[in-house]
Amino acid sequence: MRYCKINGGVSSLDFLLKKAIIINSKDNVAIAIRKLKKNQKYDLQGDTIIIKDDIDPGCKLAIKNIKKGDMVIKYGEIIGRAIQDIEIGEFVHTHNLEGIRGRGDKVIQKELIK
Amino acid sequence: MKKIMGYIRENGDVGFRNHLLILPSVICANRTAQLLGQIFENAICITHQHGCSQGGEDLKQTFRTLIGVASNPNVAAVLVVGLGCESIEAEDIANEVRKTGKIVSSLEIQKCGGVSKTIEQGKKILSEMFEEISKYKRQLVSIDNIVLGTECGGSDAFSGISANVAVGKASDLIVENGGTVILSETSEIIGAEHILEKRCINKNVGNKLISVVRRFEQRALDMGTDIREGTVVPGNMKGGITSLEEKSLGCIHKGGETEIKEVIEYACKPLKKGLVVMDTPGDDVESMSGMVAGGAQIIVFTTGRGTPTGSAVVPVIKISSNSSTFKNMREHTDINAGKIIDGDSNIEELGQEIFNFILKVAEGFLTKAEESDQRDFSINRIGPTF
């Protein structure tokens, strides 16, 4: 276990066999450090986690089940909303997560409807 | 207090380079300035696309940026080259820069009677300036004179857990030693402003921070555009970043953890020591040029994908967020924060390494961007060209 100060608090940088990092204990996603292969199994704080997709370094995987509409948490903060149900071990990116801020597209859509 | 070697300028500012600068006041003088720069290799020539057909706050901002970059303490002497009929006259810039006490001269192409005659006069002026500034020697100065700019470009998902966090540690060390750190890039505060707001020294500064972020977001909406088109770019997404708030939450780590003393406009000089926020866009070169105009003498620049970018008159220290980019873009990268990801270093150790490297660069060690003469400069526009 390593420690790193993030956002003023002490958060754990928990290495899953140096394969992924969980930045903050509130997070429901981890970041892959190495390429993670589909169907590989890892120990996640005592539980077994099965990787559901091939995940490239730097990309996110769910470490909790996330329901459609739930907030996705990284750095202990909201990074967006799940647009479909996401299972533990699944790749999390633009296909199942959308940002909330800077959504000019939504404003533009509203303007078009007017 | 720790001391290092720097150049003490007439007005008491401290520089860490001793540059001779050729600066066009307007786009029409770019070619002349460039020709002078080619003849006179000891000088740095920067060009830009502005200086005329502008108005209001936008014109003021351009004027302020040109004065600021020429007034930067890393610059020892300046030759401003103008055309003669532009909005921003060469002599107006020269007069403002003269207030710093440095050697300043200006030439107008129309007054000289063409480019050739301007170059003849310019050569003579630059030779005299160079002879004079070559006499300037470094002296012992306190490290609280450092104004450090922070920047990130081509971020990936590692930036927020390695390079930016380690730079944040170095920023804290600069502040602890009495120096100034500028956190920039308003577009990359969107979604993380609530964290920074809590760290502002008082309510006024906090309100200013929020209003600057809202103004930025609104500017994009007024254009009827989606700001994410220009902020979360394909390279960011390939690097694992999904949303604007995710990018911002990684970016703000560069400022470390100290309290925010003030929030300043683009290209303005910080009035306070410690951590300050400058309203700049996410465009690397425009953002860095704003900080340089605000008096930053050194910039630390984190990158996930790698970039050759440098800055006109300021050494830029490039720090990769991962080891594969460090290897791939070795010729442009000074420090590898990927060591943290690999388990070969940690935030504290690398933060200290970056801090020590900043001091080494301040004393004259050349960064990769300086070695390759990567002298980028560009001015942030907030209005249309008429």
Task: Describe this protein's structure.
The complex is a heterodimer of chains A (114) and B (386). Chain A contains one helix and eleven strands; from the N terminus they run βββββββββββα. Chain A is mostly beta strands and 114 residues long. In chain A, the strands form three sheets. Chain A has a six-stranded antiparallel sheet, with no helix packed on it. Chain A starts with a strand and ends with a helix. Chain B has two domains: 115 residues, Rossmann fold (3-Layer(aba) Sandwich), CATH 3.40.50; 231 residues. Chain B is globular. At the A-B interface, strand 1, strand 9, strand 11 and helix 1 of A face helix 8, helix 9 and helix 11 of B.
Layout of helices and strands:
The complex is a heterodimer of chains A (114) and B (386).
Chain A: E1 2-6, E2 9-15, E3 20-22, E4 29-32, E5 41-44, E6 47-50, E7 60-62, E8 71-74, E9 77-82, E10 91-92, E11 97-98, H1 104-113
Antiparallel strand pairs in A: 1-2, 2-3, 3-4, 4-7, 5-6, 7-10, 8-9, 9-11
Chain B: E1 3-8, E2 14-15, E3 19-24, H1 30-39, E4 43-45, H2 56-71, E5 75-82, H3 90-98, E6 103-108, H4 109-112, H5 115-133, E7 139-142, E8 147-152, H6 163-176, E9 180-183, H7 193-198, H8 203-222, H9 228-231, H10 234-238, H11 244-251, E10 260-264, E11 274-278, H12 284-293, E12 298-303, E13 316-320, H13 323-328, E14 335-336, H14 338-342, H15 347-362, H16 368-371
Parallel strand pairs in B: 3-4, 3-5, 5-6, 8-9, 8-12, 9-11, 10-11, 12-13, 13-14
Antiparallel strand pairs in B: 1-2, 1-7
Helix pairs in contact in B: 1-5, 2-3, 2-12, 6-15
